[in-house]
Amino acid sequence: MKNQRRKFIQSSLLLGVGAAVMPLQFCAAPKKDEAIESTASKLAAFGIQLYSVKEDMAIDPVATIRSLAGFGYKQLEGFDGGKGILWGMQPAEFKALMTELGIEMVASHCNVFENLEAQAQQAAEVGIKYLICPWIGPQKSLDEYRAMAKEFNQIGQKLQSFGLKFAYHNHDYTFVDLEGQLPQDVLMNETDPALVDFELDIYWAHVANVKPSDYLAKYPGRFRLCHVKDAEAGTGDPHQRGVLLGQGEIPYAELIKQSKDLGMEYFIVEQERFPTGTPMEAAEANANYLAGLEY
């Protein structure tokens, strides 16, 4: 009888311990899941290059900018569409629009080889951070790229006096071998990091068969802005491979995480090809993609 009672007590104690432990196990599981979820991040802000909706900007720039803000874009990157980098608006007018909508013009593509000071003055008045050279065209030799790098340094130094930064935006031609080197490497190595930043057009690097993640890692801290656009899988005319974000082969979740760790600050949507729909519909779809993307 005593043995039976002893066994009963031992069994009861074991059951009690099990009952106490089980709820802790079940409570711990959600915490583990929550920890996993907390490692995923989303972009707090992203922008759009206004060239993506150039036709709409030409008709009514204010209405177009209002619509883009409604899609969720918090940043704009401009270009000179024939009315100047402020699209015919005075600096105070443009700045008031940005303030009203809660967005900012972080950069503008422009002709940095002409009227630089006048453009810099306008940019400084509205709080633009970067003036960007969007195109130099394929040069005939590496020496010509070295000369261009020297001029970039001079432009960057001039913009510093206005409180602005200078950057160069690539196309595919700087990632095509010339005299045994990539011209982009020459531009990277021959420019002063204190004077010249770079905007990586991820699409153009990708279609030139350069892995954007590898190139970013090769020059940490040099790329502060990037153009975000996708490319359909395969080969062919690089001008005809553009698709909406998420419909191509570029792994943006991975790239965004890595590039932020390497100094990337601004993620700017650019859409140049529209397989379906209008430019504004593409702008909205791309904004929805980035807003929901976890990295």
TrEMBL record:
Q: Which keywords does this chain's UniProt record carry?
A: Isomerase, Signal
Q: Where is the Xylose isomerase-like TIM barrel domain?
A: 87-290
Coiled-coil stretches are none
Output the superkingdom of the source species.
Bacteria
Asked whether the keyword DNA damage is assigned, the reply is: no
Q: Which InterPro entries match?
A: IolE/XylAMocC-like, TAT_signal, Xyl_isomerase-like_sf, Xyl_isomerase-like_TIM-brl
The residue range of the signal peptide is: 1-28
A GO term for molecular function: isomerase activity
List the Gene3D superfamilies hit by this protein, alphabetically. Divalent-metal-dependent TIM barrel enzymes (3.20.20.150)
The protein's name:
Sugar phosphate isomerase/epimerase family protein
Name its species.
Algoriphagus aquatilis
